[in-house]
User: Which sequence fits this backbone?
């Protein structure tokens, strides 16, 4: 990622004095598996079974490929 972009985001965060921290924390938690699976289950049962199945297959396939890529690349986060 470009350092100018990161510095811009950091500057924006400092100027808001933490006002948006709660909002962004909430958005981060929405990406957890529990909420994603709940949304997929609701889609499967309440809206359209075929779309729910396809999205679940995509979700689990993504998790599998992501885990495999992390193990294969063996790149650790700083």
Assistant:
């Amino acid at each position: 990622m470009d350092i100018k972009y990161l510095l811009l985001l950091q500057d924006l965060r400092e100027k808001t004095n933490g006002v948006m921290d709660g909002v962004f924390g909430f958005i981060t938690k929405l990406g957890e598996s529990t909420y994603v699976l709940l949304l997929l289950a609701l889609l499967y049962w309440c809206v359209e079974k075929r779309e729910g199945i396809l999205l679940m297959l995509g979700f689990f396939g993504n998790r599998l490929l992501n885990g495999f890529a992390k193990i294969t690349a063996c790149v650790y986060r700083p």
Notes: The chain has one domain: 21-78. The mean pLDDT is 87.
